[in-house]
Amino acid sequence: MIAAHDGIPISAADRVSDVLARDERLVEVFVRHAPHFSKLRNRAMRRVMARLVTVEQAARTAGIAPDQLVNDLNEALGFAVPPVSHSTATAAAASSEAEPTRQHPTSAPVVELDVREDLRSGREPFSRIMSAVGSLGDEDVLHLRATFEPVPLFTVLGKRGFVHESQAHAADDWSVWFWRSGDSEAEREGAAEDQIAVPSDVPQNDEHTTYLDVRGLNPPEPLMRTIAALESLPAGHTLVQINSRVPQFLLPVLVERGFAYVIDESQSDRVLVRMSHA
To answer: How far, in Å, CA of 262 to CA of 269, rounded?
Structure first.
């Protein structure tokens, strides 16, 4: 049994990286549920995958009941957990199976993007993905190859009017196709969400500074939106991310991509991260 560190049970909304930070041996609980979780033993893979995926999303990827995975993780930490009834597990599986299977348009132009090597090397692939998404024509289909089913992307791109189809070639080899659903209202809502939100008390008289407010967004949206904004940041300009905490996962990505940053924690209700080309 692994000792619980802080007395707080694991929840389905916890990120896998936070779970494994308690004790790396919890990897074996994931692997016991689904062999494809063995990739979490690879530290490079863990840097990218584990910090973006919640326990619930990981369970969905593996086709297992989230409650059962949460309970087993907590049991390994020494927490007393209620049994998961057969009906609960069955209902979860039925709900997953009830999701309609979509088929990508086979006659549409296809944009190929393979990020498997990035993921295996521990490099952050989301700037490449978002850049590819931004360049898609109205009828184009993005064919993404990855080492795991990128569940966080489904919600992020779904808000922008995209639907998807997934196919597993192997435990560490997935194809996912993204294309526009034709729902103009969803696309307008997604575009509205992408607009830079600047609090009224932030100075707006500097044309070389862009503000991005990511407070209240769920991972991985803050990271993905920030990387996407940095992709188009002109030389000599500054991007200021407004966050409710220091974005620890963003900082190594900035260093890796050659951006300088300054963190301002002087205000009680926000953290400002000023980023520019080094």
So the answer is: 17
